[in-house]
């Protein structure tokens, strides 16, 4: 079906569309199932709701959490979500996506520890969660999307003609060397130790949305140790996991937010059908997940696409800069069903799903159905948490989400982030973010 903006007035409207499009998405009104706790190693979450790593680009210049960062996570903590997947934290300064991206280093571990303790205290006080949420720190290197000084300073895994066009890269621009990648493995290891020292329960070795680690997965034409073969292309991720595991043991959670489909034509895309890039092919993905599983990676946050090339793939929307050639519910179904295939193949891995937010107030019913059917372990919400930070409490207590509080998938939070400013919900948190949007997206000013 062609693109159509959200227009459902009732759950029955959603169900009718689901049937008419033959998508077979498992909607359920048994939202109480989202109260189910989940064990991850020695940790137990209080429920099956997760908050995704939504980047606010509002840290301090030294990489520590800023005032708005702290505000955002205190609001998330009060929601009662059992799992908070902390946003991208750079492991080296040159890998920051903006001058305000978080960056963990010895000088600011105490600041991250203070925020982690604040999350626990707010959760216990406001949501009654006796232990507070399980918190995962996402460790990142932005690769080709690095802008540590506010201007593009890309660090390439290899040249990709589809993505090169986005930043007008010279074909002679150098790629990162094998020796540099090997040194970077150590930086991820060091960052994981600092995250542990800051009180986080685990780390995510970020491997999604075509940042450096993810880009290596499709480096079919890269020569050397980190490209070409499947073993070469997955070497960096697996080496980092091995390093962290060897230093911190099995009690510390080692996770990954993993792209299972890029939506970029082969041989420049990962998880794509070689004949039709609009379809996913999970053969190599399953092979990689098996290797992660053998390394005791028991928590995987699954996603698709890249916000820099095909944002409708990773977050189906009503407005987003262009009109996709598919109905947003098709995009929701792709995210849901791709996750379900991984979950069913690896039932002992706890998966975090995505793709619910476009459905607004009807999202809890799809989330509940996916958990009920064993398609996913956690229902993860990202931009919804920007717009409606108390969404989890409303689901857990009342079984519903309020229509007038929901994200409307207008993409303004992403517009702000792309403009280099501090990101949040322009519509539902207008007092803070409407002036930012007016300054950087309407008037087109630059922030450095």
Can you describe what's shown?
The chain is of the alpha/beta class and about 450 residues long. It folds into two domains: about 10-405, TIM Barrel (Alpha-Beta Barrel); about 410-448, no CATH class. Helices cover about 40% and strands about 10% of the residues. It contains 16 helices and eleven strands. The strands form two sheets. It has an eight-stranded parallel barrel with strand order 3-4-6-7-8-9-10-11, surrounded by four helices. The protein has a two-stranded antiparallel ribbon with strand order 1-2.
Q: Main traits of this protein?
A:
single chain; 16 helices; globular; 11% strand; 11 strands; TIM Barrel; alpha/beta; two-stranded antiparallel sheet; 8-stranded parallel β-barrel; 448 residues
Can you give me a brief rundown of this structure?
The chain has 448 residues and is an alpha/beta fold. The protein is built from 16 helices and eleven strands. It has helices at residues 11-20, 67-79, 109-127, 161-167, 178-197, 212-216, 230-233, 235-248, 283-294, 311-314, 328-345, 363-372, 383-387, 391-398, 412-418, 430-442, and strands at 38-40, 43-45, 49-51, 83-90, 102-103, 134-140, 202-205, 253-259, 299-303, 350-353, 378-381.
What is the element layout, followed by pairings?
Layout: H1 11-20, E1 38-40, E2 43-45, E3 49-51, H2 67-79, E4 83-90, E5 102-103, H3 109-127, E6 134-140, H4 161-167, H5 178-197, E7 202-205, H6 212-216, H7 230-233, H8 235-248, E8 253-259, H9 283-294, E9 299-303, H10 311-314, H11 328-345, E10 350-353, H12 363-372, E11 378-381, H13 383-387, H14 391-398, H15 412-418, H16 430-442
Parallel strand pairs: 3-4, 3-11, 4-5, 4-6, 6-7, 7-8, 8-9, 9-10, 10-11
Antiparallel strand pairs: 1-2
């Amino acid at each position: 079906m062609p693109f159509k903006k959200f227009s459902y007035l009732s759950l029955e409207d959603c169900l009718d569309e689901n049937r008419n499009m033959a998508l077979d998405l498992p909607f359920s009104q048994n939202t109480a199932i989202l109260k189910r706790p989940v064990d991850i190693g020695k940790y137990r979450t209080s429920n099956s709701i997760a908050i995704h790593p939504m980047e606010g680009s509002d840290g301090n210049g030294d990489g520590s959490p800023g005032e708005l960062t702290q505000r955002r996570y205190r609001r998330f903590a009060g929601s009662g979500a059992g799992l908070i997947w902390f946003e991208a934290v750079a492991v080296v300064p040159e890998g920051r996506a903006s001058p305000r991206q978080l960056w963990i280093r010895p000088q600011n571990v105490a600041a991250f520890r203070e925020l982690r303790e604040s999350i626990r205290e707010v959760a216990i006080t406001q949501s009654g969660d006796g232990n507070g949420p399980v918190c995962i720190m996402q460790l990142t290197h932005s690769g080709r999307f690095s802008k540590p000084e506010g201007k593009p300073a890309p660090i390439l895994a290899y040249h990709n003609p589809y993505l090169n066009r986005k930043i007008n890269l010279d074909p002679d621009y150098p790629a990162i060397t094998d020796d540099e990648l090997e040194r970077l493995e150590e930086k991820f290891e060091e960052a994981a130790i600092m995250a542990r020292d800051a009180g986080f329960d685990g780390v995510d070795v970020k491997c999604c949305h075509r940042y450096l680690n993810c880009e290596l997965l499709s480096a079919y034409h890269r020569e050397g140790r980190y490209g070409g073969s499947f073993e070469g292309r997955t070497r960096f991720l697996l080496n980092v996991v091995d390093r962290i595991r060897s230093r911190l043991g099995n009690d510390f959670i080692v996770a990954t937010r993993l792209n299972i489909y890029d939506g970029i034509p082969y041989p420049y895309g990962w998880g794509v059908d070689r004949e039709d890039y609009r379809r996913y092919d999970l053969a190599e993905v399953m092979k990689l997940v098996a290797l992660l599983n053998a390394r005791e990676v028991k928590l995987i946050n699954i996603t698709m696409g890249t916000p820099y090339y095909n944002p409708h793939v990773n977050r189906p929307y009503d407005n987003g800069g262009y009109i996709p050639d598919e109905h947003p519910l098709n995009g929701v179904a792709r995210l849901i069903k791709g996750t379900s295939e991984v979950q069913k193949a690896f039932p002992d891995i706890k998966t975090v799903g995505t793709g619910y937010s476009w459905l607004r107030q009807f999202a809890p019913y799809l989330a509940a159905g996916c958990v009920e059917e064993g398609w996913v372990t956690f229902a993860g919400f990202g931009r919804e948490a920007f717009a409606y930070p108390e969404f989890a409490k409303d689901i857990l207590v009342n079984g519903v989400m309020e229509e007038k509080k929901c994200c409307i998938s207008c993409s303004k939070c992403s517009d702000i982030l792309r403009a280099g400013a501090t990101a949040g919900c322009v519509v539902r948190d207008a007092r803070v973010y409407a002036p930012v949007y007016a300054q950087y997206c309407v008037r087109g000013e630059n922030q450095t």
